[in-house]
Give the backbone structure.
Amino acid sequence: MAWEVFPVTERVQCKIEEPREKSWGSLFLRAVTGLCYQSLMTQPVSDKWIKCISDQGSIRGVALQATQLVRSVASMHHLTGIHAEVLGEALMGALMVASYCKTGEQVNLNVRGSGYSSQALVDAHPDGAVRGYLLPRSREEAFFGEGGDTGPWGVGTLSVLRTKGKPGTQPYIGTVPLVTGFLAKDLTFYWLQSEQVPSAVGLAVKTEGDEVVAAGGFLIQAMPQASLSEIKAIEQNIKSIESLSEDLARDADPLHLLAQIFQNATFMIVQETPLKFKCHCSQERAERALALSGAAELRDILKNERKASIRCDFCTKEYTISAKDLERLLASSA
Ligand SMILES: [Zn+2]
C-alpha cells in the first residue's frame, strides 16, 4: 500500500471544511484556517519542523519550512537554479528521516544519480541540525533514464545510514534504487521497502533568478492501525495540493501545511524544532584526515609545499596544517 505523491502545479489556500464535531481538534483547525489568510501579511516563518499525530495515533506527520537554510547552504556551495533545488531536496529529505530518529542518532543520506547531481551527501540529526553538499552535473552531461523521463535525480541509488548514539551499536543501512528520479517519490519507496511504513512525501524548492525563495515539505505516515478510510481521506487532501512550491512561497508556515493535509482529521502538535546548519569539522579532524594519507605523503608535503590545506566539503572551511603540525603528525604516525 504505497501512497502516491501529490501532483505539482498551481493553487493554494487552506481550504478546511466545516468540522463535523466540535472536538478540541476541530476547533483548533478552525483557528488555523483563519491564520492562513492572515499570514500573508505577517513576518516570514523561521526554519523549523513541526511534528504531529492524529488524535487516534494512526497517522503521523512532519512538515517543514527550510527556506533560509536551503538558501544559505546553496549559496555556501555556489549552487543556483536546479542544483540549488536538488540540494534543498536532499537536505530536507535527510531532516525528515532524522525527525523520527532518537536523540543521539545521526542520519547520513547518500544519493547517487545520473541527473543533475552525481552525488549528494547530507548528515542530519534529530535536534534539527544538518549539513550537506552535492556534486553538480551540467544539463548536457545529465542522463534521465532510457526513456528520458525520470525526475531531476535520474537513475541511481538512495542510501540511508542511521547511526545509533550508543557506541558499539550497529548502524542501520537501507538502500533502494532511484525508481522515478524524484526524491520525494523515491523516499516513499525507501520508507515502504526499508521500514515497511506507507508514506506520502512532498518536497519543494522554488528558485527565482539565483535565489532560493521557498523550500519546504512534508512526510505523512500511516501507522499499522490506520484505517483505509483515514488513509484515503488524507491522500485526497494531499492530491488537492496542486503546487507545493507555490503554496510555500505564499505561506511557508508548516502548521498551515499540516492543517491542509489533515483537514477534518483532528491532530495534535507533538514537537516543534528549529532547523540549523551545523558542521562539526575542526582543525583536529582535518589533521586526522591528512594523517590517513600516510607517512610518505606527509614527508612529501613537508619537503615540497611545507604546509597543507584541507577544505571541508560540507561547509567549505579551509584548514591549514603548518610545517610544525606536519612534523608532529609524522612523529605520532611513526
Ligand atoms: Zn565543515
In short: The longest strand covers residues 211-222. Confidence is low (pLDDT under 50) at residues 1-42. The chain is about 35% helix and 30% strand. The chain has two domains: 24-277, 283-333.
